[in-house]
Specification:
about 500 residues; alpha/beta; 7-stranded mixed β-sheet; 6-stranded mixed β-sheet; 15 helices; about 40% helix
Length: about 500
């Protein structure tokens, strides 16, 4: 199959134009940018560099579609059929979508196909199925009145997504937004726009009316900023860095006080106690979770707190697993760690590695660039020992395959340090003592706390964080709260 994926990569057809009002279009001002693959530096396509004029056109299209009811006014069962058809088409085009995802941002094809496409289509399907199963309410008022509590779509939703899981992040936003009856303008990252553009074409093929789902590739400080400041956008949903998330919130306030939902950075703590029920499982789960997707995950458990009495045994087992995470050709189905998304992110990761060395942390594995002869962007999976809580590598989000190991003897102190960052996205605790595990989970200030595993996931559970990891929740029925208004209608009897 390796040769097959390479052959497909040589012949894949890529259209980099935006999708506005159901049509493929160039940017109004004609600007484009080169889309380069981190696998080997090849130029994949020239992509429309959308700006404020394109945002205006897309928002007008979305507003028109919303106001005339071509989607919002459609019967729930009919909207359900369209979204389920879209999910079916995503499966039908699974190989194409997976190949675009891998070429665009460097993740291994085995995961693009089995994880990203599967999770994205399941998200769209799940919200499609939910459309005609959510009921409104009647309030318990006095007998001389009837009070109805109904959900209505918020209107025009802008969704700005990152480059690490482009398909999944798009689905998490457009699934509940479209299911609620909104019109959507999606701005994918300029680092990985290709699957979002193809998704818009499949949505039209599934029967989504023109104007309901628009996709604008472009830069954050151009198209993204214009969306955040636009006076006719009712809601903006953003996933990305905490720094940009703060800017999004400020721009929402400066403009029309649009709803602003943010899913931001993380520096997740993974606490392994000496009484963990299965040390091998704890090692495999911890190592697999930090190096999955090249460490480019906001919820990656990049801080590993290991109780002192099992530290040596844990590290021995961890180092034995490291060779299987050596970066390889992402188009080879045996590869489990691919390329870093772009040159800027590569330099960021390498810079943190050098900073960790300078601060006195010990590199037990990795710590250097890899596969340079390929022309691609690869970093060895890196494991630091002897890390202190005050080091930058223990406090700042690296977004790469870098694990910091901290040793503890007092669990309360480990929890204090785990909570001692601006972030609060995820955390984990490993212990056979369920009372201790539950008490610890309650103390950890994070949106998700795993016990005796890391990164179990399902569309039925919410995803989001505390503190500067953002607000609101993606996934589950709770996501509908972001994209709907609650209306009370009083009727005198």
């Amino acid at each position: 199959m390796t040769n097959s994926w390479h052959e497909r990569a040589e012949t894949v057809q890529i259209d980099g134009r935006a999708v506005i009002d159901g049509k493929r279009v160039d940017a109004v001002e004609g600007a484009r940018f080169d889309c380069l693959s981190p696998i080997d530096g090849r130029k994949l396509a020239e992509v429309a560099r959308c700006g404020a004029p394109d945002v205006d056109a897309a928002v007008i299209s979305a507003r028109t579609a919303f106001e005339d009811g071509r989607w919002a006014g459609m019967a729930p069962a009919a909207r359900k059929r369209v979204l389920i058809k879209l999910a079916d088409l995503m499966l039908e085009h699974r190989d194409e979508l997976a190949l675009l995802e891998t070429l665009d941002m460097g993740k291994p094809i085995r995961y693009s196909r089995s994880v990203d496409v599967q999770a994205a289509q399941n998200c769209i399907r799940w919200y499609g199925e939910a459309i005609d199963k959510i009921y409104d309410q009647v309030a318990p008022t006095s007998q001389d009145s009837l009070a109805l509590i109904t959900r209505e779509p918020v209107g025009v939703v802008a969704a700005v997504i990152p480059w690490n899981y482009p398909m999944i992040m798009a689905a998490w936003k457009i699934g509940p937004a479209l299911a609620s009856g909104n019109s959507v303008v999606l701005k994918p990252s300029e680092k990985a726009p290709l699957t979002s553009l193809r998704l818009a074409e499949l949505a039209l093929e599934a029967g989504l009316p023109a104007g309901v789902f628009n996709v604008l590739p472009g830069y954050g400080d151009e198209a993204g900023k214009a969306l955040a400041l636009h006076m006719d956008v009712d809601c903006i949903a953003f996933t990305g860095s905490t720094r940009v998330g703060k800017q999004i919130l400020q721009m929402a306030g400066q403009s029309n006080l649009k709803r602003a939902w943010t899913e931001l950075g993380g520096k997740s703590a993974n606490i392994v106690c000496a009484d963990c029920p299965d040390l091998d499982a704890a090692v495999a789960g911890s190592i697999g979770a930090i190096y999955f997707n090249q460490g480019e995950s906001c919820n990656a458990p990049s801080r590993l707190f290991v109780e002192a009495s099992i530290r040596d045994a844990f590290l021995d087992k961890a180092l034995a697993l490291m060779p299987q995470y050596a970066p390889g050709d992402p188009l080879d189905e045996s590869t489990i760690m691919g390329a870093i998304a772009d040159a800027a992110q590569l330099q960021t990761v390498l810079g943190y590695i050098e900073d960790g060395k300078a601060a006195g942390a010990r590199v037990l594995a990795g710590g250097a660039r890899a596969r340079e002869a390929s022309g691609g962007l690869y970093v060895e999976p890196t494991l630091f020992d002897g890390v202190r809580h005050d080091m930058r590598i223990a406090r700042e989000e690296i977004f790469g395959p870098v694990l910091s190991v901290l040793t503890f003897t007092d669990l309360d102190e480990a929890v204090r340090q785990a909570n001692g960052t601006p972030y609060g996205l995820q955390a984990a605790v490993w212990s056979a003592d369920m009372s201790k595990a539950i008490r610890t989970a309650r103390k950890l200030r994070a949106g998700t706390v795993h016990v005796n595993q890391y990164d179990n996931d399902d569309i039925t559970v919410p995803f989001g964080g505390y503190k500067q990891s953002g607000n609101g929740r993606d996934k589950s029925l709770h996501a509908f709260d972001k994209y709907t208004e609650l209306k009370t209608t009083w009727i005198q009897v």
